[in-house]
């Protein structure tokens, strides 16, 4: 239950908005719900709806409308390459295709270990530093700019070894 | 690097002429400006203090009005005039700063927020004082997650320094600033869609009027300003309207950050006076075109632009709000995407059509359906499956979207399509097949 697990954090989110406008907290609460698994399920949405006094359908509408919320499990990490016009003029489409070929997936696909989904996305406001990608995980987003396929693959390797170490710790712990 | 006496401006080798009198990108010559102590040392929050201690709210608005500052988010509306529209019969008032920077080709607000965040926050605070708002929200696109984390820390630093909170400067004025992260929706850059999103709803534009200064956030009077706009404000208050008007042109005063991208040698942000020519931006600052190829077209306002044919007349046009329309474009947020002769225009409009189809919010029919059909028709042209009839149909669909949309997103979605077909017809003739050839596919 989110309300128990993140009681304090939920309260500090609600405090940002006027008490009679609680629903304004729906977006930060969805990020909170998405933190651990990188997606939200029906139970999360129902719980957020209850906290805010709106319907589950309204919460689901928000999840569907905005690109950075996910309602099904895919990669734990989403590697999102900007392939919009300015980046495409500087080689971003080739970069995405080559990266996917090296990972043996199609753009939009997930690596066989279920760890990383790679996809092309719309403009990320980094047009002068193409090719670039952002990495979204439950914990947030970070930018990686002026990339080559090699630097991106090295980053993915680091993600993989971090994940393996974490699994090891969970097993031993 | 040689700096002036105040240690702010980069001087030429004689030490007499200022090379970069930065107003907005001051972090480029002042290292560590994102640190509160450094910002304060360079005069930070003196303007806010002056406003609260020595000026009436309406006097602040008058100075901003007199400076001629125009909104830097794209529309170019006079900022002081917008502030003066605030409805004083309804309370509370809000400030909503627009940091949803999402126009393809625009990356200026991000640099301000990363490098010079306190000047932006001081601008938010002065705007709030001018309209007597006690709460301000900064709406950041979800992708600016790390910036939001930093802004939260910077807001905390301001609270600790007594620059946010109650009884500021011993006066009866209180102010709090909050960040709010979006979640990946271009449409939330449209001011009323942004307000809807901030209220926890789908980011869909409202029918206007009423405009935000009378019916804004939570239905209350609200000023919505872009990050770059607000970042201009502290120095306007401390140095005055006359000083501000000494830069730029008469109708477009002040400096502007031009985001230069596309097929240039040195893409990046360039802070220059409004009225600088395209030629100077592209060739002097941007280092010219990659492989010294000829420049073919310019999009001056990101993906929302029409395609300006890059002839000598266009290259020598001053980039200000009045002049760019004379060569068939608009300045918008000054996101200059440079296209060289290696780029096919049908490919380009296919990119913009995909963008607008993806980002259309779906609320009004002309935009939702128009962007859908423009995407499919440009796909067909791009994939070599089209005839001239498809190009004509595309032109027809785009023309029918024109003037019928609820907000600017739909209206802008057709700019590259119509101007592309009108001005680069040859590219389309080369891309289509004779009808028999398609039949045989």
Main traits of this protein?
heterodimer; A: 173 residues; alpha+beta; Arc Repressor Mutant, subunit A; Glutaredoxin; 2 domains; four-stranded mixed sheet; globular; B: 441 residues; alpha/beta; Rossmann fold; Ubiquitin-like (UB roll); de novo design (two linked rop proteins); 3 domains; five-stranded mixed sheet; four-stranded parallel sheet; 19 helices; 11 strands; 41% helix; 12% strand
The CATH class of the largest domain in chain B: Alpha Beta
| Helix proportion of chain B | 40-55%
- What is CATH's topology name of the largest domain in chain B? Rossmann fold
Largest beta sheet of chain A, briefly? 4 strands, mixed
Structural class by sheet pairing and helices of chain B: alpha/beta
Percent of residues in β-strands of chain A: 5-15%
Order of helices and strands of chain A: HHHHHEHHEEEH
Sketch the topology of chain B as an H/E string, one letter per element.
EEHHHHEHHEHEHEHHEEHEEHEHHHHHHH
Give the overall silhouette of chain A: globular
What order do the strands of the largest sheet of chain B run in, or round the barrel if closed?
8-7-11-9-10
Explain the overall architecture:
- The complex is a heterodimer of chains A (173) and B (441).
- Chain A has eight helices and four strands, in the order H-H-H-H-H-E-H-H-E-E-E-H.
- By secondary structure, chain A is of the alpha+beta class.
- Chain A has two domains: 2-65, Arc Repressor Mutant, subunit A, CATH 1.10.10; 77-172, Glutaredoxin.
- Chain A has a four-stranded mixed sheet.
- In chain A, strand 3 (133-137) and strand 4 (140-144) form a beta hairpin.
- Chain B is 41% helix and 12% strand.
- The relative contact order of chain B is 0.11.
- Chain B has three domains: 32-245, 3-Layer(aba) Sandwich (Rossmann fold); 255-340, Ubiquitin-like (UB roll) (Roll); 345-439, de novo design (two linked rop proteins) (Up-down Bundle).
- Chain B has 441 residues and is of the alpha/beta class.
- The termini of chain B are far apart.
- A five-stranded mixed sheet of chain B has the order 8-7-11-9-10, with helices on both faces.
- The longest helix of chain B is centred in the C-terminal third of the chain and has 18 residues, at 365-382.
- Chain A binds chain B through residues 16, 18, 21, 23-28, 30-31, 52, 54, 61-62, 65-69, 84-86, 88-90, 122-128, 134, 140-143, and chain B through 101-107, 109-110, 141-146, 149, 178, 180-186, 197-203, 218, 259-263, 267-269, 303, 335, 337, 339, 343, 348, 351-352, 355, 358-359, 361.
């Amino acid at each position: 239950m989110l309300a128990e697990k993140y009681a304090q954090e939920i309260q500090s989110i609600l405090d940002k908005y006027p008490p009679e406008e609680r629903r304004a907290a729906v977006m930060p609460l969805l990020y909170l719900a998405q933190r651990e698994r990188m997606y939200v399920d029906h139970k999360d949405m129902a719980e957020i709806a209850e906290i805010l006094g709106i319907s589950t359908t309204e919460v689901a509408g928000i999840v569907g409308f905005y690109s950075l919320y996910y309602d099904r499990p895919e990669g734990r990490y989403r590697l999102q390459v900007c392939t919009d016009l300015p980046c495409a003029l500087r080689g971003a489409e080739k970069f995405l295709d080559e990266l996917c070929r090296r990972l043996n997936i199609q753009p939009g696909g997930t690596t066989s270990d279920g760890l990383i989904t790679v996809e092309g996305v719309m403009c990320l406001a980094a047009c002068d530093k193409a090719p670039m990608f952002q990495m979204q995980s439950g914990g947030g987003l970070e930018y990686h700019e002026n990339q080559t396929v090699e630097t991106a693959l090295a980053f993915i390797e680091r993600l993989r070894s971090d994940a393996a170490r974490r699994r090891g710790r969970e097993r031993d712990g | 690097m040689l700096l002036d006496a105040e240690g702010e401006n980069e001087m030429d080798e004689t030490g007499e002429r200022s090379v970069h009198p930065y107003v907005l990108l001051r972090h480029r010559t002042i290292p560590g400006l994102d640190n509160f102590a450094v910002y304060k040392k360079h005069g930070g929050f003196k303007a806010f203090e002056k406003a609260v201690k020595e000026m009436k709210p309406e006097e602040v608005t008058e100075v901003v009005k007199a400076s001629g500052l125009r909104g830097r988010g794209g529309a170019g509306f006079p900022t002081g005039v917008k502030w003066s529209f605030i409805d004083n019969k309804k309370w509370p008032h809000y400030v909503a700063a627009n940091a949803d920077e999402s126009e393809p080709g625009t990356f200026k607000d991000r640099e301000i927020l990363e490098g010079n965040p306190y000047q932006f926050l001081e601008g938010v605070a002065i705007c709030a004082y001018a309209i007597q708002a006690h709460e301000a929200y900064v709406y950041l696109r979800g992708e600016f997650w790390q910036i939001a984390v930093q802004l939260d820390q910077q807001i905390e630093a301001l609270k600790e320094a007594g620059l946010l909170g109650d009884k500021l400067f011993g006066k009866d004025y209180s102010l709090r600033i909050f960040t709010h992260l979006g979640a990946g929706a271009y449409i939330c850059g449209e001011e009323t869609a942004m307000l809807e999103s901030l209220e926890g709803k789908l980011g869909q534009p409202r029918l206007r009027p009423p405009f935000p200064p009378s019916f804004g956030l939570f239905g209350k009077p609200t000023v919505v300003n872009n990050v770059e706009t607000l970042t201009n404000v502290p120095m306007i208050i401390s140095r005055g309207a006359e000083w501000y008007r000494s830069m730029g042109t008469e109708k477009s005063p002040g400096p502007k950050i031009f985001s230069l991208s596309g097929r240039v040698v040195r893409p990046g942000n360039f802070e220059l006076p409004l009225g600088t020519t395209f030629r100077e931006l592209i060739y002097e600052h941007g280092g010219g075109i990659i492989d010294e190829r000829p420049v073919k077209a310019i999009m001056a306002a990101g993906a929302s632009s029409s395609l300006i044919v890059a002839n000598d007349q266009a290259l020598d046009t001053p980039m200000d709000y009045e002049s760019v329309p004379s060569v068939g474009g608009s300045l918008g947020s000054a996101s200059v995407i440079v296209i060289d002769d290696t780029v096919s225009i049908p490919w380009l409009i296919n990119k913009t059509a995909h963008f607008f189809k993806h980002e259309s919010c779906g609320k009004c029919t002309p935009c939702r359906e128009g962007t859908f059909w423009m995407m499919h028709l440009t796909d067909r042209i791009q994939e070599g499956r089209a005839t001239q009839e498809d190009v004509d149909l595309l032109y027809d669909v785009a023309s029918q979207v024109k003037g019928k949309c609820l907000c600017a997103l739909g209206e802008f979605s057709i700019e590259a399509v119509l101007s592309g077909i009108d001005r680069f017809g040859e590219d389309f003739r080369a891309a289509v097949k004779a009808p028999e050839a398609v039949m045989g596919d």
